[in-house]
Each structure stands twice: as structure tokens, then as C-alpha cells.
Amino acid sequence: MVDQRTLAYINLFAVLGTLENLCELVPEASELAQTPKPIALGFDVKDGPAATLTFKDGKCRMEPGIGKCNVRMAFSSPTQFNKMIDGANPPVSIGLALNANFLLKQFTPLTKLLESYMRPEPTKLEDPKFFEVSTSLMMYTIAVALSQIANNDAIGKFTASNTPDGEIAFNIANGPSATLRVKDSRFLTLKAKSENPRAIMEFESIQLARQLFDGQVNALGCIGSGQISMRGMVSMLDNLSRLLDRVALYLA
Fold first, then answer.
1. Distance spanning both ends of the chain, measured CA to CA
2. Whether residue 160 is found in the same domain as residue 190
3. Which of 20, 89, 120, 219 makes an SS bond possible with 124, Cβ 3.0 to 4.6 Å?
4. What is the number of domains present in the chain?
5. Is the pLDDT of residue 144 over 60?
6. Is pLDDT of 69 > 70?
7. Is-contact 220 144, C-beta < 8 A?
């Protein structure tokens, strides 16, 4: 069962947070993110997450909290925020009049561009470059979603409570890497390669990662065949697998 509050954390930090990587990997996105002066767009969800996306010099950066935002988008509940992500409900914006041009002509096209990579038309995946970028963005989204589930979902929190401290490397061979840092039953995702992991989960290729993300192959079968390499502390890897099952539920 999907918890709306957990889904709001995933939608904010994992989905909208992937705009950071979109602006790094896609020139069109970097052009859309260009602003005469920095714009800090805050998302404030009552009884849920709060974070700020700052756009500067064609780049995007997400940080927790809304203390530095100059445009605040307020939501009365996690459910309302989730409906906005699905395109059903508009937010209440404070500071909209001053930045309407950015929101309508830059931010909205950026989110639509992100959606085109996250939920692509099958024919677009025939382009090797598009395929690589799309799969990399999905990988970063999943990596962040893992931490949001571990920290907020009831089953995820139980799993996190049984996970030893340390770092888990979550990698695609010769591709993007992420680090899941565990401390006192809390998870934090870093979009960078772990230098000192206690456990490693690595997909042998970006093609295999895509097949797994799309549900086209069985993870257990890939582990058995060695296409997914799992090394290090067994309990960390077992709990990571449990969290991945929850990610599939929330991002379905």
C-alpha cells in the first residue's frame, strides 16, 4: 500500500530532485535553466517535505528546507502535492507574479522534458545517447527514492532499523554511481561513487539496468547469473533488496 506522505518525499527529492542531473546531462535543460539572476523555488508541503530548487547559470541544485527561497509553492497536504506532480492540482504560489515568466516558460518545460526522459516513448530509446541519459536519470531517481522510503515508509523504516551503519555502493558498471550512507537507521543518498563501501550492488551494464528498471528481467535471476554483482556485508545487501521492492511499488 502506498503512503501518501512517503510518496510526497519521493516526488520531491527523488523525482523533482532529478532536475539536477537533467541539467547536467541534457543541453536543452541547461538552456531552460538559465536565469538573469538565481531563482530559488521552494516547495512547502504541510505535514510533509520541504525543499528548495535553486536555478543558477544553467544548473539546478536541490536542498532541504525553504529558508532561502524567493518563490514558495505551498501545498495543504502530501496528497495535494502528489496530485500536482500528476498534473491534477495547481499549487498556491507566493511570489508567483514576480517570477511567472520563469515558472511558465522555463520550469514547466523543464518538468515536461524530465518526464520525456523518465517515461519515454519506446522509439526514443532506440537512440543510444537518449537511452543512456534516460537510464542514468532513472538510476539517480531510484537511488534517492531508496533513502526516502527507508526514512519515511513504515516497512522501509523497519528495514532501515536493521541496517548497519556504513556506505552501500549502488552502481552501473562504466556508468552512473550513487552512495547510500546509513547512520543510526537513517539513509542519505549521495549522487557520487562511494570510496569506502561496506557493500556493493552493481549492474553489469546500462542495458541490464534498464531491463531491470522496466521490469523486463528478474532480479534474482540476474544475481544468480552474476549479471548483478553483490559484494560485502550480506545484511546490508539483503535490506537494500527489500527497499528496492518498495521502490517498485511507489514508482510504478
1. 12
2. yes
3. 120
4. 2
5. yes
6. yes
7. no
**250 Ramachandran zone, left/alpha/beta (phi>0; psi -120 to 50):** alpha
Dump pLDDT digits (tens) for 85-129. Answer: 987 555 555 555 556 778 888 999 999 999 999 999 999 999 999
Q: What is the pLDDT of residue 91?
A: 55
Looking at the fold, whether 233 and 144 belong to one and the same domain comes out as: yes
Q: Do 169 and 245 share a structural domain? A: yes
> Within a 10 A sphere around the Cβ of 14, how many other Cβ atoms?
24
Which of 82, 116, 150 is the last residue in one of the domains?
Answer: 116
Strands across the sheet with 199-203, in order?
Answer: 186-190, 177-183, 166-172, 199-203, 228-232
In the three-class reduction of DSSP (H, G, I as helix; E, B as strand; rest coil), residue 64 is classed as: strand
Give the separation between CA 203 and CA 137, rounded to whole angstroms: 15
What range does the domain containing 108 cover? Answer: 4-116
Q: What is the pLDDT of residue 89?
A: 55
Q: What percent of the chain has pLDDT over 90?
A: 79
Domain-terminating residue out of 91, 116, 141:
116
Q: Rounded distance, CA 158 to CA 163, Å?
A: 9
The reply to whether 236 and 130 lie within a common domain is yes
- pLDDT tens for residues 209-246? 999 988 888 877 888 888 999 999 999 999 999 999 99
Q: What is the CATH number of the domain that holds 237?
A: 3.30.1050.10
Phi, psi of 166 (to 5 degrees): 135, -175
CB 60 within 8 A of CB 53: yes
192 and 211 fall within a common domain: yes
